[in-house]
Amino acid sequence: MNDVEVGRLLTVVKMLDQRAPQPDKAGMLRKLWQGLLAHVPFAAAKQATEEWYRSDRYRETRETITPADIAGWWRSRRREPVAPRGMIGAAAREAAAVLAEEAATRGMALWTHLRTGLELEAAVCEVEARRLVTSVPCPWEPCRAGVGQPCTDWKGRPLAKTAGGAHAGRVQAVIGGSTQV
């Protein structure tokens, strides 16, 4: 991963876990993570982060993810045996889907950047966080937004981005907490 990707990953971690270390002005945290995760692809690190915050271990201990957790996850995936030849087509389709998702994220981030004036990197982080939060249904009774749908208030209007754009129960569902409001 490069420096920008590490920044995006740290932003997602910070949004999911308030106890995550706060980046310093000198960028030492980002440089440290970048050095430790240089060999890990961004998509793999993002998947490891999502799995970590949905895991039983996180629910029990509430430990913040570390670069060692991500690198260990990646190392264990690399050791898995090679798939049979017939599964190569499925892997290619999955890779194409990942590339299409990343292209969609970049496009939505560019639109957010142009519309709101946010820096492009911040817009990418916002889009990724929004996509992660909408990957689970909202448990709040008046809302009940489905996967991929934005949360709404009690009148059916989409929540304002300034309010986070999602109910607390939905954010808790993403990080593996209780889905009760």
Give the helix level as a range of percent.
55-70%
Mean pLDDT: 83
Q: How many strands?
A: 0
List the domain count as a whole number.
Answer: 3
Largest sheet: none
Number of helices: 8
Structural class: mainly alpha
SSE sequence, one letter per element: HHHHHHHH
Give the end-to-end Cα distance, rounded to a whole number of Å: 37 Å
Shape: globular
Which residues sit in consecutive blocks of at least 5 with pLDDT less than 50? none
Strand content: under 5%
Tell me the radius of gyration.
Answer: 17 Å
Outline the structure in words.
With 181 residues, the chain is mainly alpha-helical. The chain folds into 3 domains: 1-80; 84-133, no CATH class; 134-181, no CATH class. It has 8 helices and no strands. The protein has helices spanning 3-16, 28-36, 42-54, 56-61, 67-78, 88-116, 120-133, 168-174. The longest helix is centred in the middle third of the chain and has 29 residues, at 88-116. It is globular, with a radius of gyration of 17 Å. The model has no long low-confidence stretch (mean pLDDT 83). Residues 128-173 form the DNA-binding phage zinc finger domain.
How would you summarize what this structure contains?
The chain is mostly helical and 181 residues long.
Give the key terms.
181 residues, mainly alpha, 0% strand, globular
Secondary structure layout plus pairing:
Layout: H1 3-16, H2 28-36, H3 42-54, H4 56-61, H5 67-78, H6 88-116, H7 120-133, H8 168-174
InterPro entries: Phage_Znf_bind_put
Domain DNA-binding phage zinc finger: 128-173
Pfam families: Phage_zn_bind_8 (PF24623)
